[in-house]
Design a protein that fits this description.
The chain folds into two domains: 81 residues, Glutaredoxin (3-Layer(aba) Sandwich), CATH 3.40.30.10; 110 residues, Glutathione S-transferase Yfyf (Class Pi), Chain A, domain 2. The protein is of the alpha+beta class. β3 and β4 form a beta hairpin. Strands 2-1-3-4 form a four-stranded mixed beta sheet, covered by helices on one side. Bound molecules: glutathione.
């Protein structure tokens, strides 16, 4: 049994979709990010961020944050779902590569855009932080589009948590950012991911909330 602490349309989306992919029993625990986080939530993640994934094994309760780590954990707990190649394989190394790449170079500038005030001590600097974030987001999509040229997935014909992770950032993209229209390989990948029944269920839950 799993519990997922989440906010809708947040970094928790990929973990939520992975729980659907593996067919595990889980409960959603909504977190209101507009309010100070309750002390019991800060015990789970001192940063007060979502997602937090809890794996309740009866006698043992495992707590995990960072969405990319949650994805790999779920892939390893449910190998039959084939969300990641075997540990030690070259394909597995590519999954690590693209998850780390996106965490560092794609998620980070979106967060910088959404929380721009945290990236400058000068309130007048917020617009410049946002402008730079928009540039960095575009650079990352450009790199990802090239990586997906053979595709359609990061591992060629094989779907993995790397594809699932990328979807969140497309959902976060805003009209005031640079258009993603030139990134046809990214678009092909996203269409395949969005068409997966598990992902559709996650997206519907997010839209309904
Ligand atoms: N790298 C983290 C990012 C988590 C994150 O920043 N989550 C946001 C929501 S999308 C959050 O909880 N923000 C609250 C805050 O920063 O105060 C992950 O992927 O889990």
């Amino acid at each position: 049994m799993y519990q997922l602490y989440l906010t809708m349309r947040s970094a928790a989306m990929s973990t939520h979709a992975a729980l659907e992919e593996v067919g595990a029993k889980y409960e959603l625990r909504p977190v209101d990010l507009t309010k100070p986080r309750p002390a019991e939530f800060l015990l789970l993640n001192p940063q007060g961020k979502v997602p937090v994934l809890i794996h309740d094994l009866g006698g043992e309760r495992r707590v995990l944050f960072q969405s990319a780590a949650c994805l790999l954990y779920l892939a390893d707990q449910h190998p039959e779902a084939k969300l990641a190649p075997p540990v030690g394989s070259p394909a597995r190394a590519l999954v690590y590569q693209w998850l780390f790449y996106m965490a560092e170079s794609l998620q980070a500038p979106y967060i910088m855009y959404f929380y721009a005030d945290r990236y400058t001590a000068d309130p007048a600097g917020v617009a410049a932080v946002k402008a730079k974030a928009i540039d960095n987001i575009d650079t990352a999509w450009n790199h990802l589009d090239r990586a997906l040229a053979l595709g359609p997935h990061f591992l060629g014909k094989t779907y993995s948590v790397a594809d699932l992770y990328m979807l969140t950032f497309a959902v976060w993209h805003k009209p005031e950012m640079k258009t993603m229209t030139p990134y046809a390989h990214v678009a092909r990948n996203l269409a395949l991911v969005r068409a997966r029944p598990a992902v559709k269920r996650m997206l519907q839950a997010n839209e309904a909330a």
